[in-house]
Amino acid sequence: MCDPVTMMTAGASILSTALGVTQQMQRAASQRGEYDHLAAQQRNAAALDEQRARQAEQAGEADAARARQRAAQQLGQQQARLAAQGTDLLGSPLDVLGDLAAAGAEDALSLSYQSTRDAWEHRARGASRQAQARYYETAAGNVDPTLGIVKTLLS
Fold first, then answer.
1. What is the pTM for the complete model shown?
2. Contact predicate 96/62, CB 8 Å
3. pLDDT at 151 over 70
4. What is the pLDDT of residues 62-113, one digit of tens each?
5. Closest Cα to residue 68, out of 112, 111, 104?
6. Nearest Cα residue to 65 out of 103, 108, 119, 118
């Protein structure tokens, strides 16, 4: 027969080991959950970045259209002034009208370029967040309580 003290010590040791294994498994599950949560946050932020990119493109198109419309109005007003003065629309007046048209086109292109650049920045940020989400998903998949359990068993 075994000594009661030895049996109690062995029982306590087994209980301690079982608790250690349970704790290691709980830690691993918690860590996996944290990584999954972080991945979801990054995916949500990336989706928001894509939405912002689309909004920037739409706003840029609207701004460029307004700039073209303003340029067309200015061009029409200038033509009306010149015609009211009885000016022949050849030579210098034609150069003035061409300059007005070119300035309007330049404004529209500048606004369009800025919105394209803003959209690109949002998409680049979104791509970075997608990569970060993939990292967290990989990290969650790599969480393995085995090493901690082995350490617990050896101690």
1. 0.67
2. no
3. no
4. 999 999 999 989 888 888 888 888 777 666 777 788 888 888 899 999 999 9
5. 104
6. 108
Per-residue buried b or exposed e for 5-15, using 16+ beta carbons within 10 Å of the residue's own CB = eeeeeeeeeee
Tell me what the mean pLDDT of segment 42-58 comes to. 96
| Residue 76 phi, psi (nearest 5) | -65, -40
Query: For the packed helices 92-142 and 4-84, what is the interaxial angle rounded to 10 degrees?
Result: 170
pLDDT one-digit tens code per residue, 68-80: 999 989 888 888 8
Q: Secondary structure of 90-127 in the HEC alphabet?
A: CCHHHHHHHHHHHHHHHHHHHHHHHHHHHHHHHHHHHH
- What's the rounded Cα separation, in Å, for the pair 61 and 116? 9
Which residue from 112, 150, 143, 153 is spatially nearest to 30, judged by alpha carbons? 143
**Which one-letter amino acid corresponds to residue 66?**
R
CA dist 145 and 147 (Å) reads 6
